[in-house]
């Protein structure tokens, strides 16, 4: 049984992505007690699913590793994974939170040896790879998962596979009798860092994401480009596995569109420029990339990155939001539209089309367990009515990592101010 | 009508966008266009337009009054609404196209022998006679719009449909002689007259 020691000076952080992790660490390193609640079986959130970071094109793993270590080594942080907040009552400085922890069926004896996965036969879509590959019913969510502990998929519980997993484990780490657990504890302030999710691409009907296998989203493309991902880092066509050298990126797929998301998702232009380098790195002179855009938004110092990618001769830019995608008889996606520099009508055939999919809040407007003020787009507002509840990172807006982390640090400071006032430490 | 055109040129001299906003149905939406091009790419007849909607909107903002109002383009709109459904800014593009066409007509700037405009006039004249559309007459007139030989050809092509409609009582050959009117033709005519007066009054106020 998991236990949490907390008081109304404790800070509850909901969501263990880069923002929640940052807020938790920053608060804990000032000496505050923090409970970090993460829905997934591991920490890190969506940046764990990125191949490289713009603008430096470095690997997210390195920053993550540092933060994971900081979190692990800090005795002030209690991490609850596979956990969700089901209720928050009370007021600023004096909340009571209820958290439901789903069973992992694996205890901390686990050495992540992988014997259970070998024994189990059932396979499921791998959510870490956005369903581009399959994983076993006993699995480590990804290579660097923290905690580094296997998980049994609840769908194998009660099947012979569960017994096989248990029998294969040499360290007695598998506990098939684990039950969901509800925990209640006090806290003084809450940081809501539940992040974002990709907009449902299938709803952009004219782009045929649900009809054409060679039309994918930008989040899937990150997994594709990752050498540890479902395609071993090869840029290919999902339909036939052939090399995808001629690639289109379509900006504002869902964003800035009153039929879909009202807001600009801000990072997609940068993400596509970054992803264009994945293609030009892979195929050099044979790469043939087209970025379709309404306008390219590279803010602040990102302008430098934009100029860098602009200098790659294999990457072309067409000022136009494509009207539709159809497939030709060989299954190649053909992008149709009219450009804005000359009003030329085009119908361009590609190997692969990547939709720069918009970011929407992971928690829907009515999905919070406590009244919380959100804006028109569903992102959390910095409203006084929210009392001691503060948003951090992607839950507050579509942000890149740099801005998400800065925002999370600000949220930590807000929360610290609240719990200090509980203690009577405010000046 | 040429006078109205002159009056409008005087009034809005430097600002065609303002003129469109004030006089064209849904014209106040034009400035909302962000030039993404989805409308143009979504138009099933787009390749036949000299200037797709997105370009028309830009031309309006650029003050290209003559080019826009005497253009054939907005007359090409068939009201399929594909553009309206897809426009990321929810512009009522179809309505703006009809609004532009209507305004050009009011000003007497429709290109000569523009077929959509010609048919619209034909439809109107037909309707005004009896207060209802005489489909037989309208149909025949449409067939012969492009000359006698062409008309015969089209008529022969549609012979079967015509016979079918005759048989099922959907079309009476007697309609070719006069044709029947609405119950209260006088009332209909005075209603139209009144509407025309109101419209003229409105235009006079705007155009002054
Ligand atoms: C295609 C693409 C490429 C990108 N590339 C870059 C890049 O190169 N550089 C860059 O700076 N940024 C990039 N970004 C942006 C980056 O992904 C975000 O800035 C970052 O993920 C924000 O982190 P976060 O912690 O706020 O949210 P998230 O990463 O979404 O983390 C939120 C966490 O909260 C958890 N959670 C959600 N709901 C609940 C709940 N109800 N209870 C408990 N936990 C919950 C989630 O499981 C998750 O772990 C990219 C985005 C996209 C779409």
UniProtKB/TrEMBL annotation, chain A:
The lineage of its organism: Bacteria, Pseudomonadati, Pseudomonadota, Gammaproteobacteria, Chromatiales. PANTHER family: COB--COM HETERODISULFIDE REDUCTASE IRON-SULFUR SUBUNIT A, FERREDOXIN:COB-COM HETERODISULFIDE REDUCTASE SUBUNIT A. Pfam families: FAD_oxidored (PF12831). Coiled coil: none annotated. Keywords: 4Fe-4S, Iron, Iron-sulfur, Metal-binding, Oxidoreductase. One of its GO terms (molecular function) is 4 iron, 4 sulfur cluster binding. InterPro entries: FAD/NAD-bd_sf (IPR036188), HdrA-like (IPR039650). The keyword Lipid biosynthesis does not apply. This is CoB--CoM heterodisulfide reductase iron-sulfur subunit A family protein.
Automatic annotation (TrEMBL), chain B:
PANTHER family: IRON-SULFUR-BINDING OXIDOREDUCTASE FADF-RELATED (PTHR43255:SF1), IRON-SULFUR-BINDING OXIDOREDUCTASE FADF-RELATED-RELATED (PTHR43255). Residues 20-54 form the 4Fe-4S ferredoxin-type domain. GO terms for molecular function: 4 iron, 4 sulfur cluster binding; metal ion binding; oxidoreductase activity. GO terms for cellular component: plasma membrane. Keywords: 4Fe-4S, Iron, Iron-sulfur, Metal-binding, Oxidoreductase. Coiled coil: none annotated. SUPFAM superfamilies: alpha-helical ferredoxin. This is 4Fe-4S dicluster domain-containing protein. It comes from the Bacteria. It holds the Pfam family Fer4_8. InterPro entries: 4Fe4S_Fe-S-bd, 4Fe4S_Fe_S_CS, HdrC_iron-sulfur_subunit, Helical_ferredxn.
């Amino acid at each position: 049984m998991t236990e949490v020691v907390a008081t109304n000076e404790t800070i509850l952080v909901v969501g263990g992505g880069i923002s929640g992790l940052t807020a938790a660490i920053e608060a804990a390193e000032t000496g505050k007690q923090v409970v970090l609640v993460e829905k997934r079986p591991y920490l890190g959130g969506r940046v764990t699913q990125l191949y490289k970071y713009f603008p430096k094109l470095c690997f997210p793993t390195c920053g993550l590793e540092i933060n994971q270590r900081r979190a692990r080594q800090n005795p002030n942080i209690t991490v609850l994974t596979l956990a969700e907040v089901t209720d928050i009552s009370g007021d600023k400085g004096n909340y009571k939170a209820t958290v439901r922890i789903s069973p992992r069926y694996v205890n901390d004896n686990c050495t992540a040896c992988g014997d259970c996965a070998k024994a189990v036969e059932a396979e499921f879509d791998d959510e870490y790879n956005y369903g581009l590959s399959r994983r076993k019913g006993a699995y480590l969510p990804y290579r660097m998962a923290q905690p580094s502990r296997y998980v049994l998929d609840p769908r194998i519980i009660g099947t012979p596979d569960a017994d096989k997993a248990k029998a294969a484990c040499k360290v007695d780490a598998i506990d098939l009798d684990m039950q969901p657990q509800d925990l209640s504890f006090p806290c003084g302030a809450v940081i809501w860092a539940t992040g974002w999710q990709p907009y449902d691409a299938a709803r952009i009907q004219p782009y045929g994401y649900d009809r054409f296998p060679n039309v994918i989203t930008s989040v899937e493309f990150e997994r594709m480009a990752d050498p540890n991902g479902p395609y071993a880092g090869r840029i290919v066509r999902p339909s036939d596995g052939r090399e995808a050298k001629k690639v289109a990126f379509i900006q504002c797929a869902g964003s800035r569109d009153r039929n879909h998301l009202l807001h600009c998702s801000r990072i997609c232009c940068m993400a596509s420029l970054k992803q264009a380098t994945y293609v030009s790195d892979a195929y050099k002179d044979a790469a043939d990339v087209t970025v379709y855009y309404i306008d390219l938004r590279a803010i602040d110092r990102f302008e430098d990155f934009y100029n860098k990618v602009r200098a790659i001769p294999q990457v072309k830019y067409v000022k136009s939001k494509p009207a539709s995608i159809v497939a030709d008889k060989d299954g190649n996606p053909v992008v149709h539209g009219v450009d804005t520099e000359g009003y030329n009508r085009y119908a361009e055939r590609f190997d692969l089309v990547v939709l720069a999919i918009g970011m929407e809040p992971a928690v829907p407007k009515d999905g919070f367990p406590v009244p919380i003020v959100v804006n028109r787009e569903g992102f959390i507002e910095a409203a006084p009515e929210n009392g001691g509840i503060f948003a951090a990172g992607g839950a507050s807006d579509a942000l890149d990592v740099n801005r998400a982390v800065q925002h999370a640090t600000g949220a930590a400071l807000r929360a610290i101010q609240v719990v200090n006032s509980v203690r009577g430490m405010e000046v | 009508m040429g006078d109205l055109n002159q009056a409008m040129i005087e009034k809005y001299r430097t600002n065609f966008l303002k003129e469109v906003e004030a006089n064209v149905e849904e014209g106040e939406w034009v400035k909302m266009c962000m030039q993404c091009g989805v409308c143009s790419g979504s138009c099933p007849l787009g390749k036949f337009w000299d200037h797709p909607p997105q370009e028309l909107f830009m031309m309006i903002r650029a003050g290209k009054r003559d080019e826009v109002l005497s253009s054939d383009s907005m007359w090409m709109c068939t009201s399929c609404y594909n553009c309206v459904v897809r426009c990321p800014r929810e512009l009522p593009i179809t309505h703006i196209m009809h609004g532009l066409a209507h305004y050009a007509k009011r000003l007497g700037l429709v290109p000569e022998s523009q077929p959509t405009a010609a048919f619209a006039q034909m439809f109107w004249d037909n309707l005004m006679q009896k207060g209802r559309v005489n489909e037989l007459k309208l149909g025949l007139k449409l067939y012969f719009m492009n000359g006698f030989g062409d008309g015969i050809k089209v008529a022969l092509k549609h012979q079967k449909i015509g016979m079918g409609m005759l048989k099922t009582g959907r079309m009476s050959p007697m309609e070719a002689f006069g044709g029947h009117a609405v119950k209260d033709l006088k009332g209909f005519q005075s209603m139209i007259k009144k509407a025309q007066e109101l419209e003229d009054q409105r235009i006079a106020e705007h155009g002054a």
